[in-house]
């Protein structure tokens, strides 16, 4: 059911003619209330797309009536005219819904540097408004309309006691997506105010979207939004709400990892025994982004020397003599030297688990990544995206 | 002539049986004086190979009689036993040359995590000592003996007035080599003391080896050594010496860039108008290491949106409205939006020049890199190295 699962939401996904392919390319998610609390987190990239600048601004009110999303163009690096296009899109949605533009967030994904075809966007908004519906199909149509190089729609739901969370996502990461954009819209019918919604969203994304790192790239458009209708009439505790939001977010992140461009492996890198959680995340990311590690794993090679090389670049405390490196349960490096022959670690399957134990403290983190394959090179060299 | 070009040096490269292939795998470079000043710069990786730990230690004296180098094994992550192997190698060289181990630097390259076959190393040192010779062939043999996945030996020379500099290199970078190791030995017959040699080497490597970034990896073994015999009797000014050392180093770096694994493009990224040189270097590296930029360039695609995305991740001052991005002389992005159609920039040739002008200051730097190709993925996934 994804975004229409929670009571109080309708959605639509239509083919507006933004994409040359004629595929669905414009989605609308509407919160019919009674509540309209909302929160958002956005890319840390210094080059921010027009829709990010707009949505960040309107989210200061922590209220949203609707989100409009398009694929087929990122509307990034498009100057003041691009910002006006985003504003005009929000105005158009506000008009058809009888609300103000300040209650409409905008998300875009696709090629950087090109203006959007605004006639298509406007007529697409009209078509989407007519198609708005609380059905499962409508949510799936919306989830499809935001895809770019994704091979499938990615949706998830979570059930509380008398309330629920739903959401969809496209792309491949929060701080390190593999293509132009990672966009996610989450909905809930729980009763929760904007401030708590913001707290819950930051807590959830910090340990889910923020820990997926496919190729170190951070998009100009990354956005995660959550909208709360309060239609269930149930007010969960903040802890309870945050836990379910984290669980639904993680479900979506696993789907991003599985569908990342060219990926043949789903790799979990756990760094434990770190002096701080920040060290653990940093070291995990350094390993996840290392092309020599990623190509070795594409070749199913437990080449722990490359993992040691990669983590040695980290700006974090490391003691080589305490360090342990294991792949798929086999400890290959310990006590400053080789522990077991790497032939003992079988990495031929799709799922690979790397555990690095620094033995320096109590903190740990897991970064999810993928391998670097011929498919990745092919997709990203043969097509502009 | 490379390392034997300057007066006072002999070299050798032999097949010691360290590599299973039977190729040359052990090199010796000897300084017959009269001077023995030396300097070295080493990897910044926190995981340092045994030969790096050893050579850094002996270089504190700023004197070297000889350098022994092996391919076929990095002797990294090999614990105290690995360090003893390096020490024993230096002792063996000292014995055959009638000097002390403290005057012998050691460099190793190859797979991380395996001990060296010390019997082969020892008999190889004997064979190399017998083959020592001041000829051009001897220098070329030495340059060949350190290669791993390199496809050719890389040597350079530079001529001062009555003095000269020679050198060889293997691998692909100083702070970001593409494989296990970048090693370089430079020689000179100029009269120069250890302190000035050290200053000149740091100045030269900072703008040459340190600005090559093939894939962001920093080896456990990276080493650049320079040995001065003083045999010419000529004492150039420090500025003159530094200039020639920089020029010879840059020649070697260009050869590394050309021979990087799987590279189909030689890419120069110039960042100008930066608030500081450090910002220019940092932004150049961020672009050079971005897989979406590298795959687009492999596909000869002037996808400047990916360059904008990559540099937006930099921890440096950036003003999108002032930013300009040009590829091969065509300005594609300026004034916050698209400047020219990217079809106008032809990137089909091997050489690609990217110029990013931040318009924020007076500083600039150029980072040399390569593309991310199927060949890179193939070499690094199909073979352990």
TrEMBL record, chains A, B:
Q: Where are the transmembrane segments?
A: none
Amino acids binding substrate:
148, 170, 181, 261, 380, 385
- The main location class comes to cytoplasm
Q: Which UniProt keywords apply?
A: Acyltransferase, Amino-acid biosynthesis, Arginine biosynthesis, Autocatalytic cleavage, Cytoplasm, Multifunctional enzyme, Transferase
Tell me which residues this entry annotates as catalytic.
181
The main enzyme category here is transferase
Please give the catalytic activity noted in the UniProt record. Answer: L-glutamate + acetyl-CoA = N-acetyl-L-glutamate + CoA + H(+); N(2)-acetyl-L-ornithine + L-glutamate = N-acetyl-L-glutamate + L-ornithine
Site label Involved in the stabilization of negative charge on the oxyanion by the formation of the oxyanion hole, positions: 109-110
Entry annotated with the keyword Membrane: no
Tell me which residues are marked as the site Cleavage: 180-181
Q: Where in the cell is it found?
A: Cytoplasm
Q: What Pfam families has UniProt attached to this entry?
A: ArgJ (PF01960)
Q: HAMAP family annotated for this entry? A: ArgJ (MF_01106)
Record-stated family: Belongs to the ArgJ family.
Q: How does it assemble?
A: Heterotetramer of two alpha and two beta chains.
Give the protein name, as stated in the record: Arginine biosynthesis bifunctional protein ArgJ
The species this protein belongs to is: Saccharopolyspora taberi
